Amino acid sequence: MTNVDKAMAALKQYFRPEFLNRLSDICVFKPLRQSQLEQICSNQISGIAQRLDTHGISLDVSSEALSFMVREAYEPEYGARPLQRYVEDSLITPISTMMISGEASRGDTIVVSYNSADESIKFEKRAKIFCSSHNLKCESTRDSADKRTFRRMDSWEN
């Protein structure tokens, strides 16, 4: 017995033949795989990054944070829809709050990472600064040794 046959048998127990006769086809979907869910989440994050880019803000989401969001949000019976709502609540809302409060502004990068200690996602702002030599705009980051590293920014990367 195929999945379609199982679905039709379940439908026959619940609906009257008059209604079932109006259905032209039944589509049975397999549950989404982890890699598919991560791709869906990644696509949603790309859309958010594009929206932030219009405000001059970059977004950097770690793969661990992405995997955490997928684990937290996925409900097999509802597909990817809960993932969309979760991204809205756990990503867009905090980023919007950072922008409204002035914590994040034009030229900044918002870094989203996974905090394994309390099983949550963490938001940090990484600001761009200006180098004094030759008036070059540079991006400042801190590595694990807390040393500043700089990357020259071309004028089109503002």
**Helical amount among residues, as a percent range?**
40-55%
Biggest β-sheet: strands ordered side by side in the sheet: 1-2-3
Cα radius of gyration in angstroms: 23 Å
Q: How many structural domains does the protein architecture include? A: 3
Low-confidence stretches: 131-158
Q: Could you say which overall geometry the principal axes of the C-alpha atoms support?
A: elongated
The number of distinct helices, counting runs of at least 4 residues, comes to 5
Q: In words, what does this structure look like?
A:
This protein has 158 residues and is an alpha+beta fold. It has three domains: 1-30, no CATH class; 34-126, Helicase, Ruva Protein, domain 3, CATH 1.10.8.60; 128-158, no CATH class. 44% of the residues lie in helices and 20% in strands. The chain has five helices and six strands. It has helices at 3-14, 17-22, 34-53, 63-73, 81-101, and strands at 58-61, 109-115, 120-126, 128-130, 137-142, 148-152. Strands 1-2-3 form a three-stranded mixed beta sheet. Strands 4-5-6 form a three-stranded antiparallel beta sheet, with no helix packed on it. Helix 3 (34-53) crosses helix 4 (63-73), helix 3 (34-53) runs parallel beside helix 5 (81-101) and helix 4 (63-73) packs across helix 5 (81-101). The longest helix has 21 residues, at 81-101. The N and C termini lie far apart (60 Å). The relative contact order is 0.10. The model is unreliable at 131-158 (pLDDT under 50).
Summarize the entry for a quick read.
The protein folds into three domains: 1-30, no CATH class; 34-126, Helicase, Ruva Protein, domain 3; 128-158, no CATH class.
